[in-house]
Write a structure and sequence with these properties.
5 strands; 3-stranded antiparallel β-sheet; alpha+beta; 2 helices; two-stranded antiparallel ribbon
Length: about 80
């Protein structure tokens, strides 16, 4: 199944489905207040349509994301060879 980056068809790819249905935490990458990059694990829920991430209302990352909303989420298997989405 050949799908271009950015195509929502990637959500139906077998590797994507395996990762979305796993219990592996996602990784959230964002820019901290001082401009340095941060990557943190974050739990998520996939309901078949929405990728939902949650955090406490006073989590420090919320201030950084309000200042700069550019971020990336990534799902990666924990065994070699790794698969990612």
């Amino acid at each position: 199944m050949l799908v271009k980056q950015g195509d929502v068809g990637l959500l139906r790819h077998p590797v994507s489905l395996e990762l979305l249905e796993s219990r592996i935490p996602a990784r959230l990458a964002y820019v901290w207040m001082d401009g340095t990059p941060r990557v943190i694990p974050i739990w998520f829920h996939w309901n078949g349509r929405d990728f939902v991430m949650a955090t406490p209302p006073k989590a420090p990352k919320l201030k950084a994301l309000a200042k700069n909303s550019k971020c990336l989420s990534r799902l990666t298997t924990t065994i070699f060879p790794t698969k990612c989405f």
